[in-house]
Specification:
The chain is mostly helical and 100 residues long. Helix content is 82%, strand content 0%.
Length: 100
């Protein structure tokens, strides 16, 4: 922070703690959701009668989808601001997961 910046630009202690807990929780839930698909691949392939090529294609779709959204969200956070992108992404992700 530069010396001429106003005081309100700094995050207060409770704001930092809230963001830390929220981002940690979101990261852990995201990690759990990303790892559910590979862990359940055997059961999915048995139930849907998929061979190794088809289940590999299904798993790679999750990988490419995740990678492409990371690039886009990084670009968007540079343009709009990280606070807005994290908030919108968390609301959108929570909305999608509540349906599942």
């Amino acid at each position: 922070m530069s010396p001429g910046e106003p005081e309100e630009k700094q995050w207060q202690r409770h704001e930092r703690q809230l963001w830390t807990v929220a981002l940690f929780t979101g990261t852990m839930l995201n990690f759990a959701c990303r790892n559910c698909m590979p862990l359940s691949a055997v059961n999915i392939s048995q139930q849907l009668h998929l061979d190794k090529t088809e289940i590999g294609l299904l798993l790679s779709c999750f990988y490419w989808g995740y990678s492409s959204t990371q690039i886009f969200s990084g670009w968007l956070s540079d343009r709009v601001g990280g606070d807005q992108v994290v908030t919108i992404a968390a609301i959108g992700w929570g909305d999608r997961k509540s349906v599942v």
